[in-house]
Amino acid sequence: MRSVKEPGAAHDGFSDWYWQRLSAVVLLLLLPLPFFLLVSVYSGSLDQQGLLDIIDHIYSRVLHTILILALIVHAYVGLKVILEDYVHRIFWRVPLIGTMLVMMAGFGIWWLALIWAWA
C-alpha cells in the first residue's frame, strides 16, 4: 500500500466510516416513527391531543434527542468527507468545516431546546 501524502483529518477513514454507519442504523430505526405519527394525524386516526400526549412523554423526548444527534452526526460526517475530497486548499477547507460544525451545533441546540421546553 502506498503512503498517502496528506491523509487529512480522517487519517485512515475508519472512524468516519464507523460513525456514518452507526448513525445510519440509528436513523433507519428511528426515522420512520415521526413519519408514522404524521400519517396517523393526517389520516385522522390520531387527533392533536393524542399526538401531544405521545410527544410529551419522556421516552418520546429521549428518542427525539437520539434522532437529532444521529441526524447531525450523519450529516456532519458526510459533508466533512465531501469537503475534504473536493476542497483541496486547506485555507478554504478548515473554515468551511468549522462553519458547518457551528451551524449544525446551533441547529441541534435549537431543536433540543424546542423538544425539552415542552415540559
UniProtKB/TrEMBL annotation:
Its main location: membrane. InterPro entries: SQR/QFR_C/D, Succ_DH_anchor, SuccDH_FuR_B_TM-su. It comes from the Bacteria. The chain crosses the membrane at residues 21-42, 62-83, 95-118. One of its GO terms (cellular component) is plasma membrane. GO terms for molecular function: electron transfer activity; heme binding; metal ion binding. One of its GO terms (biological process) is cytochrome complex assembly. Pathway: Carbohydrate metabolism; tricarboxylic acid cycle. It is found in: Cell inner membrane. Membrane-anchoring subunit of succinate dehydrogenase (SDH). NCBIfam families: succ_dehyd_anc. This is Succinate dehydrogenase hydrophobic membrane anchor subunit.
